[in-house]
Amino acid sequence: MRGWTRSWRTVRNGLLALAATVLLLPSPSRAQSDEPGCRPEMASLGLPVHRANLTLAALGKDEVRITFVGHATFLIETPAGVKIATDYNDYVRPQVTPDVATMNKAHSTHYSRNPDPGIKQVLPGWDPTGRGAAKHDVTMADLRVRNVPTNIRSYSGSTDFDGNSIFVFEIGELCIAHLGHLHHPLEPGHLRALGRVDVVLFPVDGSYTLDQEGMLEVLKSLQARVMIPMHFFGGSTLSGFLARSQDNWPIERRDQPVITVTKAGLPARPTMIVLPGN
Fold first, then answer.
1. Which of 70, 99, 174, 276 has the smallest CB count inside 10 Å?
2. Pfam families per the record (predicted)?
3. Where in the chain are the domains?
4. How far is 236 from 86, CA to CA, in rounded Å?
């Protein structure tokens, strides 16, 4: 009995030491939420996404590659080799330095305080001077990128007019729109400014951005042939949105966060394509 007591004490002491060690470890979510400039959205984000290196073939002259980096950040690559990062921020970034970085104002996970100095064009979706809407129309090799301003809710509940942008990427015959941190339905003026959209990248969280029913109506108005969800904070939110969507469009789930699209290879009818991420 005495030997058993000594063994139990040894095990107990080991467990207590392990528990003390765990308690002393920094909490990722707490450490992240203490970063200057962070917003409540960060509490749901967790750790930055780190993608495994993928060996990718060179693009053909009509191909565009889209990689879901995480949250609201995509890496878009053109046939001429131009690289674009959407909603570029200080937490979730592609593994390469983009040539063009677009940013939005709603949360610190959508803009950067310290953009990589190697980026050739940094395009904020709002006017930092506060004089009105941002206006971008930039051409680089085979890429044209422009913006359509939208409003956002401020933390006081008021409207920050022209506080964010939908960014439109025209590459060859393809038109890709990233809806950013969209907070409201699209009006006829927005749709006219956007024009035809072949691929749309859109948020589905339903709380920080537009509610899910409203986002469904946005997608119906755009009629893009490829729809890729983002900004969903975990599987349950995404599953809820897909359940709302399944009667409207076919849904395809991919195993890799990368998709290559061409104008000729677009689906015959609008299709939702889900890439792994958060």
1. 276
2. Lactamase_B_3
3. 54-274
4. 24
CA distances (Å), 231 to each of 41, 72, 192, 255, 264, in order? 10, 5, 25, 18, 28
Looking up tokens 């990427």 gives 169
Taking the C-alpha atoms of 63, 68, 69 and 72 in order, what is their torsion angle to the nearest 10 degrees? 120
Q: What is 54-274's CATH topology?
A: Metallo-beta-lactamase; Chain A (3.60.15)
Q: Walk along the chain (278 residues) and give the pLDDT tens digit of each residue.
A: 444 334 434 434 443 333 333 322 222 222 222 222 334 465 544 544 444 445 577 899 999 999 999 999 999 999 999 999 999 999 999 999 999 999 998 888 999 999 999 999 999 999 998 889 999 999 999 999 999 999 988 777 778 888 899 999 999 999 999 999 999 999 999 999 999 999 999 999 888 899 999 999 999 999 999 999 999 988 889 999 999 999 999 999 999 999 999 999 999 999 999 999 87
Are residues 89 and 45 in contact, defined by beta-carbon separation less than 8 angstroms? no
**Which residue from 56, 87, 70, 64 is spatially nearest to 199, judged by alpha carbons?**
64
Q: What is the dihedral of CA 47, 52, 53, 59, to 10 degrees?
A: -90
